[in-house]
Amino acid sequence: MVESRCPVFEETPSNDGEKPSTTGALVALLFCAALVIIVPLETLGAAGPEAQIEAINLQLQTAVSPKDQAKLYCYRARNHEIAGNIAQAKEDYFKALNTSYEGWILNELGYFMHRHGEYEKAYNISLKVLEDFPYLKKEAESLNIESRKMWDEALTKANPPTIIMDAEPDPHRVTRHDLIRQSKQTGAAASSATAPAPRGTQSTRSSSGGSHISGFGTGSALRRNYIESRKNNGK
After folding, report:
1. Residue 22 contacts by C-beta under 8 Å, 6 or more apart in sequence?
2. N or C: which end of the chain has fewer CB within 10 A?
């Protein structure tokens, strides 16, 4: 709300001892009340941030003290942010601080930086608030913790950690995967050693049902070949 200066009226007796009429004072008070109804910034909120900015621009033309000017710059920065004019909002925050260095404005600038991803600047501002305006310790420490956390996360995302082998690998080193592989191989070998022999390898009989001696055939051919062999050995 704009502070409107109303004249101060005091009821003093006139030269002839009669009290002056209060009509003039009443008119002045009504005029001041009309200003209070017309000027407040809150009544312009429904019109959007652009209307607020226009109203603040008018007030800046008549603001005298640096603190009042800085306050108006800060209010205009808030409305620029709502309107999406981030660069202009930042510029107004800097104008406010350059006009009057106030702790609440500096702290607000830090949170503004945090909201828009400038975590390193927000962190540095929080340190400055803690140093210059210790009465804002609670707000500054909260900003300090959150901005540092987000800053670290942004740095890690932009520069992911890498593993660098700075030593020769040990050829005798046995890893967990090596032990698992050895266990599987040992189990497979033990399983094959205890498995039964394939069918047909344990019998010396041929598929024809006769005995089989290597080199003599089976059945009648076996006997004939055997007899011939004996005869030849007898010679």
Report:
1. 11
2. C
How far is residue 217's CA from residue 226's CA, in Å, rounded to a whole number?
10
Give, in words, the CATH class of 26-158.
mainly alpha
Q: Where are the alpha helices (DSSP H) in the chain?
A: 23-38, 49-60, 66-82, 86-99, 103-115, 119-132, 137-158, 176-193, 219-234
Tell me the residue type at 25.
A
Q: Model confidence over 81-126: pLDDT tens digits?
A: 999 999 999 999 999 999 999 999 999 999 999 999 999 999 999 9
Answer whether 102's CB lies under 8 Å from 70's CB.
yes
Closest CA to 90 of 108, 103, 102, 104: 108
Residue 219 contacts residue 207 (beta carbons within 8 Å): no
Residue with tokens 């009648």: 220
Of 99, 103, 173, nearest to 138 by C-alpha is: 103
Q: CA-CA distance, 86 to 109, in Å (whole number)?
A: 12
Rounded-to-integer distance, Cα 114 and Cα 143, Å: 8
* pTM > 0.85: no
Rg (CA), the chain: 50
Number of other residues whose CB lies within 10 A of the CB of residue 118: 19
How many angstroms separate the CA atoms of 57 and 101, rounded?
Answer: 21
For residue 1, what is the DSSP state? -
Separation between Cα atoms, residue 110 and residue 153, nearest integer Å:
18
Q: Are 63 and 76 in contact (CB under 8 A)?
A: no
One-letter identity of residue 139: E
